[in-house]
Design goal:
Number of domains: 2
Largest sheet: 7 strands, mixed
Number of strands: 23
CATH architecture of the largest domain: 3-Layer(aba) Sandwich
CATH class of the largest domain: Alpha Beta
Bound molecules: nicotinamide-adenine-dinucleotide
Helix content: 25-40%
Length: about 500
């Protein structure tokens, strides 16, 4: 019988009743390995009921105690790393080492969130007026939700969960229906770590579940990560409903290669950043901008040599550099874009479309592709392909490269490869992108900084993880207090003034 993944509500598995299921594939085999229950509105409401009932007690729990539970949770995730990575890889397709990286980057943020006792501290000013003091405190929002994509089934749910619950909220996760098993296991492990029932709930589902989460007035904030059109629509919807949202979308990350860069290092960096995880990363580098003809010619040669040595294989093949795409639809989309690039006149230097992995003929594999002489009007340049395709756009100077980056619709990540400190400094100051790498191809900030793109890559004022996450998941309350020690001098009718009242 096909394995089924259901919901995790109130500290227990709750079987879905909709009789609607999504298929969960093993992308290396191209076959369905499980099915996931798609929640009804009532099931989502039940999760919100449970979360709302559990949250006040959790919010009143000493933050250090909350942090200790997170610490135990971190420990349990590490103890179960092999099992979690295998589960993650089997549904996503990424190789095991990369799946462990996915989980580790999630733990990075849980560990940061353990600093809640410090991060939640308010400010205090005494004697703002005669006998009057003012202090501020950060309070949780109540019930908050995370809606997450398929491509980091552990990391992104943990980025949302950690700060949200450390701050005293109850959290409902609606993970991607393509990779539901790891989020479910994480919820089980959180219970085992001592998290009270109802503080971390997982409802699986599709748009019906998201709509139910949006429409319930008790859910106060949404941390969304996924494609740009959905990010934008959830952000607008939340604003209409007077709720808080931070919504992170798609990307097209550029890398400028200056003529003084070490091109062997650059080629190694680009191959890893463009093709790792089959390009299914929002921080994947998908456009290279070599400055000058010689830089471009040498770079294409070095990339071509390295691509020939890449190994594509199933997630449990220890020699594989990357695995299959997540689904048949993704494979069709990437192949379609490559066809469009060829039709538009780009030079397809390496064509990965027909790759077959022996023993995995039905898997959703695609080889690495490299385009040269791409121009800014081509769909392979304008659109997020989300596959192992690297486009080279030749530029004559740094200003032309910078303009391309700044004019692009997306602004998630970017890199410059150079030995020129002046160029790098100018680049960091003027580039219109949220996360910048200087000789670092995938500049994903560490958990105690914040992560977020600009332009169509991110909607909302606050970023993910780091101090912003605590600001996002809390409200500030400011208290002005006076303890009367002298008799009243009568009513006052002017605005209280700090230094005179
Ligand atoms: P997706 O937009 O298809 O799905 C994301 C989530 O939204 C899933 O939980 C899905 O069930 C839900 N969803 C889908 N359609 C919906 C609808 N109509 N209404 C409400 N909810 C809906 O994205 P995906 O394919 O899972 O993930 C890949 C995308 O995520 C890429 O564009 C990638 O760049 C982006 N991404 C961005 C970041 C970032 O931080 N900027 C990080 C990772 C992934």
């Amino acid at each position: 019988m096909t394995r089924e993944v259901h919901h995790y509500i109130g500290g227990d598995t709750v079987s879905g009743t909709s009789n609607r299921f999504g298929d969960v594939y093993n992308p290396a085999e191209g076959a369905v390995q499980a099915r996931v229950a798609l929640a009804t509105r009532d099931e989502v409401t039940k999760a919100i009921d449970v979360a709302a009932a559990a949250q006040p007690k959790w919010a009143a729990t000493n933050p250090q105690r909350r942090a200790r539970i997170l610490g135990k949770f971190v420990e349990l995730i590490r103890e179960n790393m092999d099992e979690l990575a295998a589960l993650l890889s089997s549904e996503h397709g990424k190789v095991l080492a990369d799946a462990k990286g996915d989980i580790e980057r999630g733990l990075d943020v849980l560990e940061f969130a353990m600093g809640a006792p410090h991060l939640l501290k308010g400010e205090y000013s005494d004697s703002v007026g005669t006998g009057i003091d003012t202090y501020s405190m950060r309070q949780p929002l109540g019930v908050v939700a995370g809606i997450t994509p398929f491509n980091f089934p552990a990391m992104i749910p943990l980025w949302k969960l950690g700060p949200a619950i450390a701050a005293g909220n109850a959290f409902i996760l609606k993970p991607s229906e393509r990779c539901p098993s790891v989020p479910f296991r994480l919820a089980e492990l959180a219970s085992e770590a001592g998290l009270p029932d109802g503080i971390f709930n997982v409802v699986n589902g599709d748009r019906t579940a998201v709509d139910a989460l949006m429409e319930d007035p008790r859910v106060r904030a949404y941390g969304f990560v996924g494609s740009t059109p959905i990010a934008q629509s959830i952000f607008s919807r939340a604003a209409e409903l007077g709720k808080r949202a931070q919504c992170f979308g798609g990307a097209k990350n550029h890398c400028i290669i200056m003529p003084d860069a070490d091109l062997d290092q650059v080629a190694d960096a680009l191959v890893g950043a463009a093709y790792g995880s089959a390009g299914e990363r929002c921080m994947a580098l998908s456009v290279a901008l070599p400055v000058g003809k010689e830089t471009a010619d040498v770079l294409v040669e070095k990339l071509t040599e390295r691509i020939a040595n890449l190994k594509v294989g199933a997630y449990d093949d220890p020699n594989a550099d990357y695995g299959p795409l997540v689904g048949r639809d993704a494979l069709d989309r990437v192949r379609r874009y490559i066809g469009e690039g060829v039709d538009a006149g780009a030079e397809l230097v390496v064509d990965g479309r027909d790759l077959v992995v022996p023993g995995h003929e039905a898997g959703f594999f695609i080889g690495p592709s490299l385009f040269d002489n791409v121009t800014a009007d081509m769909s392979i340049y304008t659109d997020e392909i989300f596959g192992p395709v690297l486009c080279i756009v030749r530029v004559s100077d740094y200003e032309e490269a910078l303009k391309l980056v700044n004019d692009h619709e997306y602004g998630n990540g970017v890199a410059i490869m150079t030995n020129n400190g002046g160029a790098a400094r100018d680049f960091a100051a003027r580039v219109q992108v949220g996360m910048v790498g200087i000789n670092v191809p995938i500049p994903v900030p560490i958990g105690y900084y914040t992560f977020g793109g600009w332009k169509a890559s991110g909607f909302g004022d606050l970023n993910q993880h780091g101090p912003d996450a605590f600001r996002f998941y809390t409200k500030t309350k400011t208290v002005t207090e006076r303890w009367p020690s002298e008799p009243s001098t009568g009513a006052k009718f002017i605005m209280p003034l700090g230094d005179q009242s």
